[in-house]
Amino acid sequence: MTRRLQHRRRGGEAGFTLVEILVVITIIGLIMALVGPRVLNYLAESKVKAARIQVESFSGALDLFYLDNGRYPTTSEGLVALAQRPGSVETWNGPYLRGGAVPNDPWGHPYVYRSPSEHGAYEIVSYGSDGQEGGTGTAADIASWQH
Fold this sequence. Notes:
The protein has 147 residues and is mainly alpha-helical. The protein has a domain at 51-143: Glycoprotein, Type 4 Pilin. The chain has helices spanning 2-11, 18-69; strands at 112-114, 123-126, 142-143.
């Protein structure tokens, strides 16, 4: 009797046919074509939001630096002055940034810092995904004076 059951299993439909596998792969491909761009768009938007949050964080750290030293770091001292004591500062109570280092923007480019600036006491800029001034969408500049 066991031989008959084994024969039925082997002789019957066991596994998937090539056509069934191709249909499943096609369905998965269609779903990915519909969902994929949305997921990539959310990823791009999250990097823009992360850059804005980092710029706000730098602004808070710069305000603490100002309270301790009576001035903002110069352009030549840069944002590094928030992580490491500049030689010209006596009352530095930092580091003002966690980790003791200035992070790059979400696209791996360094932030641009100027002080004084035409937009106020200082400006912090991320040039977006392309790393160049100007642009639109995810390549648009993210600046401290744009809130």
